[in-house]
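Task: complex structure prediction.
Instruction: return C-alpha cells for all chains below.
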Amino acid sequence: MPEADFSSARTFSGTALYGYINGGADLYLEYGFIAAQVTEINYRGGNYKTAIYRMTDPEAAFGIYSVSRFKCAQKPAVSDFTCQTGYHLQFCRGSYYVSIINGRGSGEDKDASLEIAKIIAGKIREPVLDLTSYLPGTSKEEIQNNCFLARGRLGVVNGSPDLEDFFKGISGYTAVILEDEEKTVISVKCSTEELCREFPGFLKNDKEVLPGTGLTLHPDDLRKISDNHLYIVLRRKI
Amino acid sequence: MKRHTLTRRKFFYLLSAGTAALALKKIPAIASEFNQTQGKPATNVSAAAKIPRKASSMPGIFPGKVIHVKNMSSVAGDVPVDSEAFKMIEKAMLELTGQKNLKKAWRMFVSPGEKIGLKVNPVAGTLLTTSHAVVKSVVKQLTESGINKKNIIIWDRRDMQLKETGFTAEDYPGIRIMGTEMQDEAGGYHDSNGKLYGEKNIDRDWYYWADVEGEYDAETMPFMVNGGKYSYFTKIVTQEVDKIINIPILKNAGSSITNAMKNLAYGSVSNTGRLHASLWNETCAEVCAFAPLRDKVVLNICDGLRGCFNGGPGANPEFICNYNSILVASDPVAMDRVAYDIIAAKRIEEGLQKAPTPQVLTFLSMASELGLGISDVNRINLKLLDLS
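Output:
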C-alpha cells in the first residue's frame, strides 16, 4: 500500500492486552490469546484502525469472531469467516482474528477496509478452520454464518446469555452452538472425560432445563459422540 | 453477606497479611477484618466501614432518585451535540435538586475552593469514550457556578488513553488532566531510575486487599502498576481531589453493565487484572465502599448519548448505538439499576436476549448492602424527561 501512512503501531502480548482494552481483554484471554498488533492507517483520506489478534489456535480466533460479528451487511471473500458493516470489517483466518474499523462508514471506507483486509489475509498461511466435526450434517454455510464458539462464561454470555446457567461452574470445554427459533444445538468437547460428566447435572428428563428460556431436553436429544464429546439439543417449548 | 468461619491455617495466613498492613496508617487491618464470602476469595471490605461516614457519603443527598433525560436531537451524524448535552444536564440538575436556578443546583454538590475531579471513561478509545459534549457541558456549568477551572481535574487511570481520546490541555485549557498510569513521549513507562511512572501516583496508605495474587509479566506491569494482593488507590482520589463527579458511559458488560460503580472501582485502584475473573462483582461494590470514593463522589452523570449494547466494555462498532440519554443521580447504585433497564431493553430489541435478567446485577445488591445506594427498582424514584 504505497499511498498508506502507518502510525501508532502498538503490540500487546498476553495479559498486557489489559493495557489496550482493560476488562475487554478477559474475553480474549478466555479463548486463548497470544498477542495483538494495533495500527492506525491513513489511506486515501480515510483512517483505519487495524487490530490483528493472534490467538492460540484457529478455534480461539473463530470464537472471538463468532461473538463479535452482528448483522453482517456483506460477507466479502476475504476468508471463510468475514463480516462487513458500515464501520467495521472483521474476519478470522487460521489463528488470527482481524478487525478493521473505519472512521466514516462511507463506500470509500468500506472499499479501503476490504483492500487492507485482503492484504492481511494474504499473509496468513494457515489452513481453513473446519468445524464440521462439531456439527455433523450441518451445512458449511450454516456453520459459517450462524454458529458461535465458546470456551468459558464470557464467550457464552456474549454469544447467548440465556445459556449462562447451562454452563455454570464448568470450565475446560470448547462448545460450538447453533441456535434457531425452535432449538439450540450444543456440541461440546471437554478437555477430559470427567469434565463432560458435569453436564448431565442439568439434563433432567422433560423438565425445563433453563428456567425462563423455555428450553427443555429430552433424553433422546443427548448423544455421546465420544467420551469427551457431547451433542445436546435443547428444544424450545412452543 | 454470609461469612465463612476462618480455618486455623487461614487465620494465621491472614494474620501475617494483617501484620504487614498494620504498618499502614490509614487502614488498620487485622485478621478479623478480612472477610470471605462463601466460595470467594477474602477481601478487606470490612476495613472500609471503620472510617465513619459523612453526610455526603454515597448515596449522597438524593438516595434512590434518578433523572433520565432523553433527547433525540442530542446526537447528529453519530456525533454528540454540545448544546443539546448542555440542555439535558441543565434540566436533569434542576429536576434532581428541585432548584430553579442552575448555579444553586450545582452548589448543592460543590463549592468554590474545592478541587473537583471529573472521572471520565476513555478506555474504549475514540469510538466510545465519555463524550466531550458532556464533559464540556459539565465544565461550563461548574465554572458558571463559581468553580475555578484551575480546581477542576479530568482524570482516569491511564494518562495515555485520556490523550488518545482528546482529553488534553489544548482542548481543556486551564484544566488539569491526570492519569495514574503514565507513558513518556518516547513510549516508555519507567523513569530514569527504572521505576514505573505510575508508582508515584498510587497511595500505599489506601488499598483494597483481596486474596488473589496479581502476577504480571514485564509488559503487563505498566498497566497494573503493582502485583500481589494489594490494589492501591490512586493519589488522584486520596490526595488531589475533594469531590468527584463520576461521568461513565452507558455500556454493557456481557449481560450485566459497566457504568457508575465499575467506572469508579476499576478506574481508581491499581493491580486490577487479578480482580476480573473471580471478584468482578465484589470489586465494583467494595472498592466504592472505601472512604476516598464513598465520601467524595457527590454526583454521577451517565453519558448515554452514545453507548453500546453488546461487546462492552470494549468498542465494537456493530454494537454502538445512540441511546440519546443522560442519567443524573447522586446515588450511583440506583443510577446503575436504571442504566441496566435501558441496556436490557436495547439488547431485547436487537434479539440478544429474550427477557431482562436483573439477577445478574450482583454488584448492585452488594453495594446496597454496603449502604452505597438503592438497588431495589421498586424503591427507586425515576423521573423521565423527554426533550425531543
